[in-house]
Amino acid sequence: MPTVLIPLLLALDQILKLWALENLSPVPRPFLGDLLYLTLVKNTGAGFGLLEGRAFLLGWLSLGVGTLLLYLLAQRRYAFWQTLALSLITVGALGNGIDRLGRGFVVDYLDLGTSIPLIATFPVFNLADVCVTVGAALLLLAPRRKHRF
Questions:
Q1: What's the total number of domains in the chain?
Q2: Is residue 69 part of a domain?
Q3: Average pLDDT of each block of 10 consecutive residues along the chain (149 residues)?
Q4: C-alpha 129: how far from chain center
Q5: Which of 38, 85, 127, 148 could share a disulfide with 13, CB 3.0–4.6 Å?
Q6: Which residues are designated catalytic?
Q7: What is the chain written as a DSSP string?
Q8: Is position 66 within any domain?
């Protein structure tokens, strides 16, 4: 079941963040040519610079969302794609919530290094952010059951 991914991805998220804190700096380091760089950013807000300096509030909000999703996943049976999507969003919420409350900031390290407009100014992100984004996309794209009347 996709819920097995939650502890595995959550552990991987935290391991990668510890690695980034120990091995990266704010100076971008090429990882995949000019496509992806590794850059250490200590984010005290949300994505795109929103709510800067509100890590404590955002941390509790993230943990609340993650806990609610864990509860919903335990209480109800969802289709495979919905379960996978909700599991990924849970990982993202809990992973960044742990950072915000434990460190006072989220550790970001993935940096899209391209000159393509819109992508060129995309914020540095992490595995938890990828999980939320992929989970949300799966929720939007997952096949829906058709109700028969």
A1: 1
A2: no
A3: 91 98 95 90 78 78 95 92 96 96 95 77 92 96 64
A4: 2
A5: 127
A6: 108, 129
A7: -GGGHHHHHHHHHHHHHHHHHHH--SS-EEEETTTEEEEEEEESSSGGGTTTT-HHHHHHHHHHHHHHHHHHHHHS---HHHHHHHHHHHHHHHHHHHHHHHHSSEEEEEEE---STTTTTPPPB-HHHHHHHHHHHHHHHSPPPPPP-
A8: no
